[in-house]
C-alpha cells in the first residue's frame, strides 16, 4: 500500500481515502472534482487589519513632520516634532517586517473555502472543505495520484 498523503484528519492511500471521518475505497469514487466556495470574510478583514497596523505608524510620523513644518513654533519645537515624526515612521520598519510575514501567511491560507467533492454511489459527497490553499493542493494532488494509479476503471479527478 502506498501512502500519498497523511494528516491529522485526512489519509490518502493506494487503497482508499479517509476524509471527514469517513472511509472510501478508491473504486467507490466514480468522479472527483474540486470547487471554490464562498469567501471567508474573516480572513480578508484580518489581512486588512494587518495592513492598517503597518501603515498607521508611518501616517502618524508623516503627520508629525507636517505639523512641525506648518506651525509657527520655535526651531527647537520644530526639530523635536519633525524628529519625533521621523523616529515614529522609522520605528514602523521592524514592525512592518513582522506584520508583512503575517500578511504573506494570510495569502497562503487563502480567503475562499476550497472543497473536494466526489460522486459516491450516485450521490455527490463533500470530502473536504478548507481555506488553507497549501493543504488543499497537497490533498487534491495526492487524491489525483491515487486515482490515476488505481487499476480499477479510470475516472480521473476533474475540475468543475
UniProtKB/TrEMBL annotation:
Keywords: Membrane, Transmembrane, Transmembrane helix. The chain crosses the membrane at residues 44-71, 77-100. InterPro entries: DUF6232. It comes from the Bacteria. It holds the Pfam family DUF6232. This is Fumarate reductase subunit D.
Amino acid at each position: 500500500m502506498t501512502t500519498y498523503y497523511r494528516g491529522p484528519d485526512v489519509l490518502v492511500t493506494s487503497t482508499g481515502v479517509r476524509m471527514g471521518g469517513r472511509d472510501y475505497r478508491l473504486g467507490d469514487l466514480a468522479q472527483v472534482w474540486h470547487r471554490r466556495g464562498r469567501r471567508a470574510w474573516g480572513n480578508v478583514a484580518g489581512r486588512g487589519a494587518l495592513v492598517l497596523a503597518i501603515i498607521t505608524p508611518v501616517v502618524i510620523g508623516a503627520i508629525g513632520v507636517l505639523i512641525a513644518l506648518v506651525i509657527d513654533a520655535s526651531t527647537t519645537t520644530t526639530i523635536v516634532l519633525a524628529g519625533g515624526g521621523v523616529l515614529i515612521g522609522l520605528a514602523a520598519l521592524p514592525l512592518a517586517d513582522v506584520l508583512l510575514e503575517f500578511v504573506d501567511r494570510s495569502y497562503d491560507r487563502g480567503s475562499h473555502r476550497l472543497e473536494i467533492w466526489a460522486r459516491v454511489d450516485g450521490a455527490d459527497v463533500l470530502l473536504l472543505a478548507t481555506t488553507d490553499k497549501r493543504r488543499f493542493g497537497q490533498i487534491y494532488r495526492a487524491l489525483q495520484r491515487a486515482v490515476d494509479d488505481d487499476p480499477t476503471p479510470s475516472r480521473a479527478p476533474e475540475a468543475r
